[in-house]
Design brief:
This is Glutaredoxin 3. This protein has 13 helices and twelve strands. It is of the alpha/beta class.
Length: 303
């Protein structure tokens, strides 16, 4: 009987207005609230609604909420919902985490982590903010040129980030990136840290250069090439790689695990002769793969 009552209580609440949403956050401030911003036309949202229903059964102490993103635009705009499905996590009426996309395993992990953790610390505690500023400083200095974007250079998740990557690649600029969707604390904190409210953001030597509009202006004025570090040319990279050791084997895989029959045969030959050598896995570098071909390993040594 108790199990049946718990299952009956394990429902996903649907919210249809901004006022109803704010009231729900206030009434359930003592518990974790997970909000699914969804759209009826997106099949992945329907799948995640099923996941939410199952999680509601497993975590009856957590409040699970559905909010149709386009039907309540004021809430979607307030929390910068640009795609569906998106999940927000609230404690004490404050947003503490975010998940963009239909990632059921990650949603499950976040629910479990936040449900088992204590209450969200009050905003008056300044120590976490100091720690965050130190972390942001380290991130902005993580590479000579750092791009904070939505998604990755290989899979940008917004048009502005995609355009930024295309410009940097067109100018052969060497940069590292950070996916702001992967860390909600960084996503929100960097806006205050840099006094720049939108993404993407480009940093050089830890200093903010600007967003997409600024980068376009620098490109038009031909200043971009003088500000950002250039990636080494392929010929220079190959020269460094081929001179890394007296004998260099460019192969598919590495010494411990060859990933093609030809590479395995050459490893066996080299190991049987006792020759000292280093290897480079061409599967980890698309440029090297194209330069050396895709069929056989290449052995290079001193003349």
């Amino acid at each position: 009987m108790a199990a049946g009552a718990a299952e009956a209580a394990a429902v996903v609440v649907e919210v249809g207005s901004a006022r109803q949403f704010e009231e729900l956050l206030r009434l359930r401030a003592k518990s974790l609230v997970v909000v699914h911003f969804w759209a009826p036309w997106a099949p992945q949202c329907a799948q995640m609604n099923d996941v939410m229903a199952e999680l509601a059964k497993e975590h009856p102490q957590v409040s699970f909420v559905k909010l149709e993103a386009e039907a309540v635009p004021e809430v979607s705009e307030k929390y910068e919902i640009s795609s569906v499905p998106t999940f927000l996590f609230f404690k004490n009426s404050q947003k503490v985490d975010r998940l963009d996309g239909a990632h059921a395993p990650e949603l499950t992990k976040k629910v479990q982590r936040h449900a088992s953790s204590g209450s969200f610390p009050p905003s008056g505690n300044e120590h976490p903010k100091e720690d965050l500023n130190l972390r942001l400083k380290k991130l902005t200095h993580a590479a000579p040129c750092m791009l904070f974007m939505k998604g990755t250079p290989q899979e940008p998740r917004c048009g502005f980030s995609k355009q930024m990557v295309e410009i940097l690649n067109k100018h052969n600029i060497q940069f590292s990136s950070f996916d702001i969707f992967s860390d909600e604390e960084v996503r929100q904190g960097l806006k205050t840290y840099s006094s720049w409210p939108t993404y993407p953001q480009l940093y050089v030597s830890g200093e903010l250069v600007g967003g997409l509009d600024i980068i376009k202006e620098l490109e038009a004025s031909e200043e971009l090439d003088t500000i950002c570090p250039k990636a080494p040319k392929l010929e220079e990279r190959l020269k460094v790689l081929t001179n890394k050791a007296s004998v260099m084997l460019f192969m598919k895989g590495n010494k411990q695990e060859a990933k093609c029959g030809f590479s395995k045969q050459i490893l066996e030959i080299l190991n049987s002769t006792g020759v000292e050598y280093e290897t480079f896995d061409i599967l980890e570098d698309e440029e090297e793969l194209k330069e050396n071909g895709e069929l056989m390993p290449i052995l290079k040594g001193e003349n």
